[in-house]
Write a structure and sequence with these properties.
Length: 236
C-alpha cells in the first residue's frame, strides 16, 4: 500500500512540475507607471496605477470590465500577485479574445454565439473564500462554457474548496502561476497546485484583468482588486 501511495505522489509531482522547455526571457507585462500597452473592454470599471500596482475599482450598473493587453500570447508562463476585497469577484483572463461582430462558435458539439464586444476565454478565478466555495486558482471559461476546473474538464469541487480555504490569504497578497503549453493548462496558488487539465478550444489570445460587475449594489461600489509583479515568459 505504501509503495502505491508513493508512486501516486510521485506522478502528481511530475504532473505539476514547472515547465523546463526552452523559453524567452521573462518580461514585465506593464511598465509600473502607466497602462501603456493595455486597452479596456466591456464595462466601465476604473483602472489606475499607483506605486507599481494596477488597481481595479468596481462601478455599479456596468457589466464585467477587462483591462486587456494589446499583444496576444499562446504558450507561456504567467506569474502575478493579487489582493482582492472579499466582497468582489474577479479574475485574470488568458488566451482570450473579443469580436467586432456577433460570431458563432462550436465546442463539445454545441453551438454558441458570442456577442460583439464580449470578452471571452479562459480565466484564472480570483474567488474570495465563501463558506461553501473557495475556487481561487480554478479556471472559468468567460462568456462561453462556464466552469472548466473544477467543472467539465475535471476536479472535485469539494476537495478543491477545502484546499482553497487553506491556502488562500484573505486581504493579503496571493501569488499565481499559470502555465499554458499546447492543450495543457495548469495553475498554482501560493505555490500549491490547483487546476491541471487539457483543452484545445483557444490557442492564443490576450491577457486581461477583470473587475466583475456588481449590478446595482451601491454598497459594493469602490471595492478594489489589485495586481502587481505581472510577468510573462513565452515558450518557444
Amino acid at each position: 500500500m505504501f509503495a502505491r501511495e508513493s508512486v501516486a505522489l510521485t506522478l502528481l509531482a511530475i504532473s505539476f512540475a514547472p515547465l523546463v522547455s526552452f523559453a524567452e526571457e521573462t518580461t514585465p507585462l506593464f511598465d509600473g507607471k502607466s497602462l501603456e500597452g493595455w486597452t479596456q473592454q466591456g464595462g466601465n470599471a476604473k483602472y489606475r496605477v499607483e506605486s507599481g500596482i494596477i488597481i481595479g475599482e468596481s462601478v455599479p450598473n456596468t457589466p464585467n470590465s477587462f483591462l486587456c493587453t494589446e499583444k496576444k500570447y499562446g504558450d507561456f508562463v504567467l506569474e502575478y500577485e493579487y489582493k482582492c476585497d472579499d466582497r468582489l469577484n474577479s479574475g485574470v483572463q488568458f488566451r482570450s479574445n473579443v469580436f467586432d461582430e456577433e460570431t458563432g462558435i462550436e465546442s463539445d458539439g454545441k453551438k454558441r454565439k458570442i456577442a460583439a464586444g464580449r470578452v471571452h476565454g479562459y480565466q484564472v478565478e480570483i474567488d474570495p473564500n465563501k463558506p461553501d466555495r473557495a475556487w481561487a486558482g480554478g479556471i472559468y471559461d468567460e462568456g462561453r462554457r462556464g466552469w472548466l476546473y473544477p467543472g467539465i474538464r475535471g476536479g472535485d469541487a469539494d476537495v478543491f474548496t477545502k484546499q482553497g480555504q487553506k491556502i488562500y490569504k484573505p486581504g493579503e497578497w496571493n501569488s499565481v502561476r499559470v502555465e499554458c503549453n499546447g492543450n495543457s493548462i495548469k495553475t498554482w496558488l501560493n505555490g500549491e497546485p490547483r487546476a491541471d487539465f487539457t483543452d484545445d478550444m483557444t490557442a492564443e489570445g490576450f491577457i486581461a484583468l477583470q473587475v466583475h460587475g456588481i449590478g446595482g449594489n451601491e454598497a459594493a461600489a469602490g471595492t478594489l482588486v489589485q495586481w502587481r509583479n505581472l510577468t510573462l515568459r513565452e515558450l518557444k
